[in-house]
Amino acid sequence: MSTATANKYLVSIGLEVHVQLKTNSKMFCACPVRYGDEPNTLTCPVCLGLPGAMPVLNIGAIKRTLRSGLMLGCETPPIVKWDRKSYFYPDMPKNYQITQFDLPLCEGGKVPLYDLAYPKEVQKNIPEPGKNIALTRIHLEEDVAKSTHHASFSSIDFNRAGTPLMEIVSEPDITTPDEAFAYLNSLRQILVYAGVSDADMEKGQMRCDVNVSLRPIGQKELGSKVELKNLNSMSAVRRSLYYEIERQGEALDNNEIIIQSTRRWDDSIEETRLMRTKEDAHDYRYLPDPDLLPLHTPDLVAEARLDLPELPHTKVARFEKDFGITHYDASVLASDQNLADYYEQAAAGASSAKKVANWVINNLLAALNEKNLDITDCPLSAQSLRELVDLIEVGQISNSQGKEVFIALFETGDKSPAKIAKEKGFEPADSGEIDAFIDQAIAANPGPAGEVSEGNDKAINFLTGQVMKLSRGKANPKQVGEGIITRLRP
Ligand code: ZN
Ligand code: MN
After folding, report:
1. Topology (CATH level 3) of domain 431-488
2. How far apart are CA 117 and CA 180, in angstroms?
3. Which residues pair with 142 in a beta bridge?
């Protein structure tokens, strides 16, 4: 945001995130949750909203919500219930959504903002590293049908109607568009770790409404909030907030009153447009759903606690400690659970877990990126990568030869590094040969050789380079360096 706005106003941003849960069946009926089927083929009287149809709870969805809540440090009230939220829904014919009002599955909790979850260009300069964003609650509800608007008519597909939706509501603790971006990214990472959703915003598996308000610095109570809709990517959330904060700042500068309202983000012109002024919460006329009994959760919570996955930041700390790698490298590796699993397999028992990390981050990720492949499609097994790094570490092949072997492995995917190295004729130079190269390099470079004798360590590197050239990369630089020292500093 501009410095003018930042100097005058405090910004409060709260996010409501809807996440489609990965379940086999829908929230209140046995219809399958699937994408890409013929429209209106995955339906029944319950998810079509026909009168008198009776909803039945999907325990799998409840367990996944509890699991997410426990990973996010939420409280889990012992009794929860379901309520009807009345509204005119063109895509929900019963005209109420079954959701949770006063007794949700999870309360409180927090989302830790990970450094690498911020937009790339601000990662080096995070104002409050390690900040946590407090959560208000997490509840479970049903998704509506999907409407599509054509030129002269609209169509509606009920395959999506009734998909379990987990709604995660944050406190208005977020203060910048970059933090909102980091929040969504960090939350997504945790939900993917939890295995409850793929949480891909571009695929609509994670949808986000944003509330943003400004107030003059020094004022205690929050300003009127404006809700932003139609945000289809994390980048759209960030850009819409930059725009909206500036718009509200200018309005307040001109003594305009901000009214509570909902605005639509138009990604093509990068502006927000007024949709409506906001109904109050009581307009929804929440009432307990008489078709669904309240649920006693302690047994489900106890069960969920038994197999909670490791959180991303716990994994980062463990990688740093167990493998001796930097916080940054550990964060890159743990940013994706599959990547973390791959690294862990490759590093287990490797002669240098740190070198394995370098190879994964510098070579493997670049190669995957170039071919537009995901780590789960990696042609090179974790074991092959470990063997390759080991070959280099023990001096069987040089680092540059290792890169050639890596390329061959990545392309074929089916050979062992040792076999490829052999096929390419990469044999370690024998020590007699190396000694001869050292003598040759010293004879050809009397100046640097003299400097080494006088104690100049920099000149060792120069001579090592010469020997490496003579050996065409076969020599082990560490052994060469030692050989030079033995020769010149007897
Ligand atoms: Zn159904
Ligand atoms: Mn909702």
Report:
1. Arc Repressor Mutant, subunit A (1.10.10)
2. 10
3. 164
One-letter amino acid at 218 equals: G
Residues of the chain with pLDDT under 70: 1, 278-282, 414, 429
CA of 149 to the centre of ligand 2 (A): 22
Residues 6+ apart with CB under 8 A from 431: 479
Yes or no: say if 193 and 311 are a contact pair by the CB < 8 Å rule: yes
- Measuring CA to CA, how many Å separate 279 from each of 262, 275, 285, 342, 441? 10, 12, 11, 49, 83
| Residue ranges matching CATH 1.10.10.410 in the chain | 431-488
Q: How far is CA 359 from CA 191, 315, 321, 356, in A?
A: 28, 19, 19, 5
pLDDT digits (tens, 9 = 90+) for 372-418: 999 999 999 999 999 999 999 888 888 888 999 999 999 887 678 98
Residue 41 near residue 147, CB atoms below 8 Å: no
Residues in the chain: 490
Distance 231 CA to ligand 2 centre (A): 15
Ligand nearest to the CA of 139: 2
Ligand 1 center from residue 45 Cα (angstroms): 6
Q: Which-ligand-closest: CA of 32?
A: 1
pLDDT tens sequence across 77-91: 999 999 999 988 889
| Per-residue confidence (pLDDT) for residue 423, from 0 to 100 | 86
User: Could you list which residues have their CB under 5 Å from ion ligand 1?
Assistant: 29, 31, 44, 46-47
pLDDT score for 429: 67
Q: What's the CA-to-centroid distance between 99 and ligand 2, angstroms?
A: 7
Identify whether the C-beta of residue 143 lies closer than 8 Å to the C-beta of residue 161: yes
**What is the per-residue pLDDT for 207?**
96
Smallest CA-to-CA distance from 58 within 157, 176, 142, 129 is with: 142
How far apart are the CA of 149 and the centre of ligand 1, in A?
Answer: 24
Closest CA to 113 of 15, 251, 249, 1: 15
The answer to whether 234 and 201 have CB atoms below 8 angstroms apart is yes
